[in-house]
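Quick start: read one record
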Amino acid sequence: MNRLSIFASVAALVMVMPVYAADVPTITPELQPLDIASGTWLYHGEDMATADQKAGKWTWLEECGWSANHAFMSCSFTMNWPGRVVKSQSVNTYNYSDKSYWHYEMFDSESSGADPFIARMTIAGNTWTHYGKADKKTYRVIYHYASPTQVTVRIELSSDHVHWTTMAQGEGVKQT
C-alpha cells in the first residue's frame, strides 16, 4: 500500500506540472534580441574633451534582468563619471502597436526626475541604437555586442541629426 500511495503522488505531480509550466512567461521573438543584456556588466570608458566637458575616465556597473512577465529588460546602472556618481534604472521593451523598440531611463540626479531619457531604439543584428533627447539636446547611444560577453558603447550628440560628436566611448564585459 505504501508503494501505491507513492505512485499515486508521483502520477498526480506529473499531471499537474504542465499546468504550472504553462504559467511561466516566455520571451517572444520580438523581445529575444534584448536577452543578450541579461546579467552583470562592468564598463570602462572615457569622456572625450569637448566644449561641454573635460576628458576623463569612467566606469559603469550594469545589472540587467527580465521583468516577472518577461515584457521588459530592466537594467540598474551605477555610473562613476569623472567627478560624480549617477544611478539610473532603465527599461527596454518592444511596442507591438508601433512595432519598434523603446528605451526608458530614470536618473537619481543630473536632471529633473520629471525629465527621463526616452529613446526610440533600433536593433540591427547585434547593434542597438537609442535616439533620444535630454537637457534639450539630441543624443544617440550605440551599443554593439561583439559577443554575448563583450559590448562597446558610444554616446554621441547632435544639433542637426546629421553631424554627430562622440561624447563618450567605452567597453563592457559581462561578469555573470
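The chain has one helix and ten strands.
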